[in-house]
Amino acid sequence: MEPLKLRRLPIKFYGLSLIFLIGIIVQGFKLYTIYSLQQAIEHPDAIIVDENTPSKLIFAKAMHLTQIGKTGEAIRLYSSLRNTKDLDLRARSMHNLANIYLHDGAQHWNARGVLDYNYVTTQVELAKQNYREALRINPDNWDARYNLEYALRITPPPKEKPKSDFKGTKPSVFSTLPGLPGGGP
Amino acid sequence: MMIVNPIISAGNRRHFTQQVYLWSLFALCLAWIPAKAETSAPIHSLETSSPRDFGIVMGDTISSEIRVRMDVGYQLETANLPKPGSAVSDYLEVRELNWSQQTQDNETTYRINLVYQVFKGVREPETLNVPAIPLRFKQDDKLVETEAPAWSFTLSPIISPKLLDEAVILRSDLPLPAINKSGHWQWLGISLSGLIGLAFYAAWHLGLPPFNRRTPPFVRTASALKKLNKQPASLINYRQGIKLLHDALNETAGYSLFAKHLPKFLEEYPQLHHLKPDLEQFFAASNQAFFATATTEPADYSLTRLEKLCRELAHTWHKKQ
Questions:
Q1: Which of A115, B42, B47, B155 is the S-S candidate for B71 at Cβ 3.0 to 4.6 Å?
Q2: Ranges of CATH 2.60.40.10 domains, chain B
Q3: Which of B122, B191, B258 sits opposite A27 (nearest CB)?
Q4: Which residues, other chains included, contact A127 with Cβ-Cβ below 8 Å and sequence gap of 6+?
């Protein structure tokens, strides 16, 4: 007996089937990746950061480190996100980085005032730079605006330059130059 | 600096006053010459406007538009304009710069749009200046230089001026942005629906379950033959009709049914036995249509007759079911 020859389906059918099949595979893979990422974010202490770690996991790890007080390592991780292509994540990283600097600077300013002038100035300056960067990317970040205004408020006034005791005029400068030592040629 | 001696005489004073008037007139003439040169210059007017100059706070973006109307032919030297990302003062950065040119009635209008961002913290409202922007226009070797005037705006504080520095509570860290899955779910749903839809289409097209029970092959084919019969008679249509009936017979038999298989087929389906002569004629007509050189449908076996046979097959099949 000869086999039944089925009626042919139009070529469009196969094309569309392929498109839909690819769509299912791609979207399914993306959803799987997202759920894996969310699982990892829920346990930031288990995240091991290396050069292949996704930006969002680095961010989650940095947040966790800030919460447990390891700000030095958090600064390093947030700074590594300075060039990430995800602009929203970059802006958030710069904001949180600035917060670390500003909290530190503000604590020193409120505790010791001008006694810690250099340290406070450095920390506040770094905070301002990072808030500015965050606001350049997202001007609608009102938290960054607020904190930056505060950073500018507590920026210590510049130290006055020590006054020079020299009161001479230009010609007198030459008059103070030492002459040839006695006995010279 | 001119100092008037209070002890000069009245005559001298009159003479002195006259001299002052003369010098003033001369000075006015000198001042008038460049002013006149400006009005006859290729620039007809220059305006700067801003949507608002108040209620601005730290981080806000403020835009301004510079409109220059001038003679046709002058080109704006864009290299001279402030670049996006550059700072124009301690507290102002240029975020965006774009310009357009429109020529109408022997006059070119340049519109230069600048968006600034303010980075200054104030404890109470303060008036700040947006600096003047130098503009250069060139036509061949002629160069026209001017500047968009400076303007000012009021910057207000975000933090209450009454709040002490020690009492300010900093805004907390920003969380990780929410990962949007809805888009992926949507696309997955669309792809799945599409594939399921295609599967149904294939089942319907091939007469597979659930469509095969509802529409027997002969009924489907009878309907298709009716549509085909409405079209102008041609050999192509006739061959198509024959092919459709062959498909229906194949589908019913479960294998490719040729004339030689007819006795076996009728054994399997005895209810169709009374149609044996018609089926034999159909196979003969099919053989003639596909293998003989004919240009039109044969008069003794038309598409109408094909449809009639198909309907009889469908009817008998239906009765059996």
A1: B42
A2: 44-160
A3: B191
A4: A98, A99, A101, A102, A105, A147, A148, A151
In a domain, A169, yes or no: no
CB contact under 8 A, A34 and B171: no
Q: Specify the number of domains making up chain A.
A: 1
CA dihedral of residues B243, B246, B251, B253 (deg, nearest 10):
-170
CB count, 10 Å around CB of B31? 10
Residue A153 lies inside a defined structural domain of this protein: yes
Instruction: Report, in angstroms and rounded to the nearest whole number, the Rg of chain B calculated over CA atoms.
Output: 47
Closest partner CB to A132 (pick from B119, B190, B205): B119
Phi, psi angle pair for A47, to nearest 5°: -75, 130
Rounded to the nearest integer, the mean pLDDT of chain B is 82
Asked whether residue A147 is domain-assigned, the answer is yes
Give the number of A-B residue pairs with CB atoms closer than 8 Å. 150
Model confidence over A71-124: pLDDT tens digits?
A: 999 999 999 999 999 999 999 999 999 999 999 988 887 788 778 888 889 999
Q: How far apart are CA B239 and CA B220, in angstroms?
A: 17
pLDDT digit string (tens) for A130-177? 999 999 999 999 999 999 999 998 876 665 555 555 554 544 444 444
CATH code (residue A143):
1.25.40.10
Which of A6, A59, A152 is nearest residue B121 as measured by Cβ atoms?
Answer: A152
For A127, the domain range is: 62-158
pLDDT digits (tens, 9 = 90+) for B23-37: 554 444 443 333 333
Quick check: is A31 in a domain? no
Residues of A in contact with B268 (CB under 8 A): none
pTM: 0.63
Identify the CATH number of the domain defined by range B44-160.
2.60.40.10
Instruction: Find chain A residues with C-beta within 8 A of B59's C-beta.
Output: 135, 139, 141-142, 144-145, 148
